[in-house]
Amino acid sequence: MKPVLPPLNALRAFEAAGRLGSFKDAASELHVTPGAVSQHVRLLEEWLGASLFERHNRRVELTPAAKHYLAEIGPLFEQLSAATARYGTPQTVSRTLSVNAPATFTLRWLVPRLAKFRAGHPDIDVKVETSNEPLESLKDDYDLVIRGGPDTFYGYSMQPFLSEERLPVCSPTLLKRVPLRSPGDLREHTLLHTSSLPRLWPDWLASVQMPDLRPAAALTFDHFFLTLQAAIDAIGIAMGPTALVADDLAAGRLVAPFAGPRLPSRSYCTYVADEKSGDERVALFRSWLEREAIVKSDASRNARGSRSSR
């Protein structure tokens, strides 16, 4: 008869939490978040059809039945560990750093710089996944998450590393076809919008006292990186985030027709679960992001006034 076994990851999370008396300490030992431990324990409780812990605010306590269960399965994990040490081949500890970041930021800022990080840290493999979901909605565990901020989340440390503003940008080819000498000339142009950021153009036009300006046309995209690509391809004018278009401004693929005004924007920040903040890989990646941001801030300042320098 085939043995009936509960989910082993859930069983491991229960054993660690029960032995240590803390979801947080169990998460630190297993290199996951406390939320992940809680989810595994809940899964095991559903599988068993019984409660395993009594939850009291920030502490947990085993139920009487769970104490007996832990007493029986605890030695089994010790036996498994001993058997593996005798017959198994030790594996190298993973050096993969998992990162989750917004798609446009990843495409236009992070990816072009990752080769530098790899050159300086060839022993660390970086796994990047993109998402615009709020931090608290992410289903998977990541070593480091990049989002806007600064925001505060319980159980996470936060560090801002890259600030930006927003201003109109377009291709120099477009300006050769249709000059743009003042904000009023936007009536002759196509304004590029992103559906998730509908207020960018209205707010900028209001800042130049032209809230009722009607452009020649408008084009809306569902992703911001598509909006910026359309600007590079001389389709229209976009509200460009300075941090993400600095390379294009420096290379001449885009120009900023007006020195200002610039709309304020949220900074890019790193968010790391407390139990991972001491991880050397995380610390190295955070420091590298901050150094790259300083270099890019200098480039962005050098790109200001690009219209007057043409």
From TrEMBL:
<dbReference type="InterPro" id="IPR058163">
    <property type="entry name" value="LysR-type_TF_proteobact-type"/>
</dbReference>
<dbReference type="Pfam" id="PF03466">
    <property type="entry name" value="LysR_substrate"/>
</dbReference>
<protein>
    <submittedName>
        <fullName>Transcriptional regulator GcvA</fullName>
    </submittedName>
</protein>
<dbReference type="InterPro" id="IPR036390">
    <property type="entry name" value="WH_DNA-bd_sf"/>
</dbReference>
<keyword id="KW-0805">Transcription regulation</keyword>
<dbReference type="InterPro" id="IPR000847">
    <property type="entry name" value="LysR_HTH_N"/>
</dbReference>
<dbReference type="Pfam" id="PF00126">
    <property type="entry name" value="HTH_1"/>
</dbReference>
<dbReference type="InterPro" id="IPR036388">
    <property type="entry name" value="WH-like_DNA-bd_sf"/>
</dbReference>
<comment type="similarity">
    <text>Belongs to the LysR transcriptional regulatory family.</text>
</comment>
<keyword id="KW-0238">DNA-binding</keyword>
<feature type="domain" description="HTH lysR-type">
    <location>
        <begin position="6"/>
        <end position="63"/>
    </location>
</feature>
<dbReference type="InterPro" id="IPR005119">
    <property type="entry name" value="LysR_subst-bd"/>
</dbReference>
<keyword id="KW-0804">Transcription</keyword>
